[in-house]
Write a structure and sequence with these properties.
The chain is of the alpha/beta class. The protein has two domains: about 1-100, Rossmann fold (3-Layer(aba) Sandwich); about 105-198, Nuclear Transport Factor 2, Chain: A (Roll), CATH 3.10.450. Helix content is about 20%, strand content about 35%. It has four helices and eight strands, in the order βαββαβαββββα. The strands form two sheets. Strands 2-3-1-4 form a four-stranded mixed β-sheet, sandwiched between helices. It has a four-stranded antiparallel β-sheet with strand order 5-6-7-8. The longest helix is centred in the middle third of the chain and has 14 residues, at about 80-90. The two termini are about 15 Å apart. About 25% of the residues are buried.
Amino acid sequence: MPKPVVALVGRPNVGKSTLFNRLAGERLAIVDDIPGTTRDRLAAETEWNDVNFNIIDTGGIDPTHGGKTPLSVGSADFIQEIREQALVAVNEADAVLFITDGSEGVKVLTGMLRSAFPDFKATIDDILTEGDKVVIRMTWTGTQKGEFMGVPATGKRVSFGVIDIIRIANGKVVEHWGQMDSMSLMQQLGAIPAPSAG
């Protein structure tokens, strides 16, 4: 039985390669402060909590378009090719981990979603608290009217789950973990095939 595949995707310089190296247990991916250093997919075998799987590092998906300055300073001439490589990784993956920068990532992701899905709506399904942590389970919906992560506008209506966990200290959010069902979203947009029944 083949090992499961987990793809790491996100914008440039949000820590994908650092996480990849940590999971791989060695420095295989180049890590640099210059956005756009990673351009191609890189795979490694790893193990976490007694589960063996393959991890795929990808170049940052630069949402820049329309003549704006690219985020991928080191790869400005290869933005489309990097996106295509990231989508190949998503297509090959059993799970997709969407990595964001904790300080800016949520605002950037929300901006990307609102641009692509003008009727974007986040519905809170559950809020749970325990000690210094808050868990929020949501359903995000919208109709794709603009480009999203390299996928041109489809006009399709989507609905997918999101879970956020935040830790609060001294009245401020000090840590955030988020999980978006990117696989379901990309399948609904037709960017990757849905699993076969059976």
